[in-house]
Write a structure and sequence with these properties.
Shape: elongated
Oligomer: single chain
Radius of gyration: 20 Å
Number of strands: 0
Distance between the termini: 37 Å
Helix content: 40-55%
Length: 197
Amino acid sequence: MNEHASARVRVVAAVFVVLALVAAWLGAHATNAARDAQAQSNANTQTPQAGQQPPQENPAFAELHKRVAGHENAPAEQVFTNIQVLKGVPAQRFLQIMGAYSRALGVRCDYCHIPGEWEKDDKETKQTARDMVRMTADINAEVKKIKTIAADNPMVNCSTCHRGQPKPAPGMGPGQGPRPDGGPRPQGAPTPPAQKP
């Protein structure tokens, strides 16, 4: 096989990998959207019973919202300290993105950050998150080069692989791997491949 044909094979293989990632993301996105809609519906219909207080926002996160107030459209690096990726993103959108990361990995802010000292780089998970942001940006940039895929919007994100878990889920196709909510798999659903020790 000549070098040109070999390059074509690599491109086709990359396209199939990206399509598998897209399929996994679409499956996870549909599941997450349904779960979020149900949670929102429940939140809208639930009222505190006598003697109960309504749920309170995390005080550490409330502090960040106060910092953004009046600067919602300013670049994140002008509102927050030590922004290394996502520069230029409006500060309000930046907080929304951080919330999306938390949901995609099923973790709280303190998984990567020290609440109240958000700028510190003391946790390895924070650098890993930055690396993952760069990786998904690189993948999405490559997907946009494929003319047969409408890639106006990002095709992969954290949920594509993590699906509600801190570590990437082992299965890549829809219906594979553990469910994001930790529930049992429906009968007849594919089981994830065994992980090697």
